[in-house]
Automatic annotation (TrEMBL):
Domain EAL positions: 23-277
Source taxonomy: Bacteria, Pseudomonadati, Pseudomonadota, Betaproteobacteria, Burkholderiales
Alphabetic keyword roster: Phosphoprotein
Signal peptide: none
Source organism: Massilia phyllostachyos
Residues of the full protein shown: 490 to 767 of 771
Protein's name according to its UniProt entry: EAL domain-containing protein
UniProt keyword annotation of Phosphoprotein present: yes
Length: 278
């Protein structure tokens, strides 16, 4: 038994060593890649479901490494968070997104909104609100057209602190959406105390919507919840017309997904918007 234990330990520590080494390697690659300008943003249009017209976009981070490989944010954001790099990267993302919003406005899209993902590591940083204020000032982006997306898992933690921080953020004039809504367990009373503006129905519930009657029950509940609390609701990951149809029937006002547009380069976004205006 002792030998087995030892063998087990050896196996465990070796595989863990590989994993940590891989993580450290990626962290270094990300840090230098960030400095070399390998990160960029893609913008996915968000639309009004009834008319199909775009009212805004979500900024999504992309990483193309030196050798041309694309690494998805699902893989490198956790490493950026783990290493603390997300604080600098997140500030850069925010400034890039705000600058793009200013360019879009100059190009005639005055009512366009920009949604930016904020990691909890970034949000918890003591200077987050100062950083946000400075980014708004420096870029000249109007706060009323800026939305920050925080995940529901974060919305659950340390209620008192979160309520206060969200209140500070709201005072800058930006709005707040709870991302991946339905995947966590926010209680109603908790939700009421948070000064959020929008709930974002997680893609998994949109995918389930065309299955059974039960499949649509979570999406339906979120839409109803939004209505009762006076919050805006957007469905993410809408891929086909059937899903869009059901969401419309359920009274979901807003949507985002491949059915309407993929995440686009700034140039492609402008072209997409101009085509829509025709
Ligand atoms: P998310 O915030 O839930 O973003 C939505 C993801 O769904 C994006 O993946 C988007 O490209 C994808 N998507 C949009 N429409 C569809 C659709 O119709 N079907 C399918 N299958 N997928 C769709 P992406 O860009 O790979 O981002 C993954 C996650 O990485 C994001 O999930 C977000 O949590 C995180 N992320 C991305 N950019 C940033 C960032 O700038 N900062 C932080 N902190 N996190 C980010
Ligand atoms: Ca998001
Ligand atoms: Ca989401
Ligand atoms: Ca998601």
């Amino acid at each position: 038994a002792k030998a087995q234990q030892r063998a087990g330990f050896f196996y465990f520590s070796r595989s863990m060593g590989v994993e940590i080494r891989e993580r450290v390697r990626m962290m270094h690659a990300l840090r230098s890649g960030f400095q070399r300008g390998e990160l960029f943003l893609a913008f996915q249009p968000q639309v009004d479901l009834a008319s199909g017209r775009a009212f805004g976009a979500e900024a999504l981070l992309r990483w193309r490494t030196e050798d041309g490989r694309m690494i998805g944010p699902d893989r490198f954001i956790p490493i950026a968070e783990y290493s603390g790099l997300i604080v600098d990267i997140g500030e850069w993302v925010l400034r890039q997104a705000l600058a793009e919003l200013v360019r879009l406005r100059a190009g005639g899209h005055q009512d366009f909104t920009m949604s930016v993902n904020v990691s909890q590591v970034q949000f918890r940083h003591p200077h987050f609100v100062d950083m946000l204020r400075r980014a708004l000032d420096d870029t000249g982006a109007p706060a009323e057209y800026v939305e920050l997306e925080i995940t529901e898992s974060m919305a659950m933690e340390e209620p008192a602190l979160l309520v206060e921080k969200l209140a500070q953020v709201k005072r800058t004039g930006v709005s707040i959406a709870i991302d991946d809504f339905g995947t966590g367990f926010s209680s109603l009373s908790h939700l009421q105390r948070l000064q959020v503006d929008r709930l974002k129905i997680d893609r998994t519930f949109v995918t389930e919507i065309t299955g059974s009657a039960r499949g649509s029950s979570i999406a339906e509940m979120v839409i109803q919840l939004g209505r009762n609390l006076g919050l805006s609701v957007i469905a993410e990951g809408v891929e086909d017309e059937r899903q869009a149809h059901i969401l419309r029937t359920l009274g979901c006002p807003l949507a985002q997904g491949f059915l309407f547009a993929r995440p686009l380069t700034p140039e492609a976004l402008l072209e997409w918007l101009d085509n829509q205006a025709l």
